[in-house]
Design brief:
mainly alpha; Four Helix Bundle (Hemerythrin (Met), subunit A); globular
């Protein structure tokens, strides 16, 4: 296991998860604003660790494993908190779609890697757009719990639904890329 600056930034995202949860439940009128800042910081470290790993030629197998795990943990935990605080059906459905897709694609990637077909399901630009929409929606939803509540809540919900649509679209693309391998009757698991 090799640790470098990009890996430490990824680990920072994981460490920020309990910080975000603790802030979320603080009886303070700007607690969700602080959560939005923590989530935004996590999003920044997500971009920065990848950029630095490539720029400084510090990509590692451990970092490649840990980065998507950190992202998915942060997003899933935050979506669960948001749904728990505001059980709106649109937010709940969009959150279930996002979390379900992440589990499905992570499993698909693991299986494809196991059979030597990982390249078929590499991260796409649509996946990056989905992630960006998701991150922005979550920050706006967190902000909308403390400030400009009605306006930000509506914008955040619309963006989260949009990110759920992008999520399904990207999942379909990944499944289509894997379909020739998944439906090959001559291939043994």
């Amino acid at each position: 296991m090799e640790f470098n600056l990009p890996t430490y930034l990824t680990l920072t995202r994981i460490v920020l998860i309990p910080v975000l949860v603790a802030l979320f439940y603080l009886p303070w009128h700007l607690a969700h604003l602080a959560c939005a800042a923590v989530f935004g910081l996590a999003g920044l470290t997500d971009w920065l660790d990848g950029y630095l790993a490539r720029k400084m030629s510090q990509t590692t197998l451990f970092g490649a494993f840990l980065d998507p795990v950190a992202d998915k943990l942060m997003v899933a935990v935050t979506l669960v908190l948001i749904v728990q605080a505001d059980p709106n059906p649109w937010v709940a459905i969009a959150s279930a779609v996002i979390i379900g897709r992440e589990i499905t694609i992570a499993s698909l990637r693991e299986w494809m890697a196991e059979i030597g077909q990982r390249k078929r399901v590499e991260v796409s630009w649509l996946g990056k757009w989905k992630t960006t929409a998701q991150m922005v929606a979550i920050v706006i939803l967190l902000l909308g719990m403390d400030v400009w509540q009605d306006s930000l809540r509506q914008i955040g919900q619309a963006l989260l639904v949009l990110s759920a649509v992008l999520t399904l679209w990207s999942m379909i693309q990944y499944l289509q890329a894997a379909l020739p391998v998944l439906t090959n009757p001559r291939r043994e698991p």
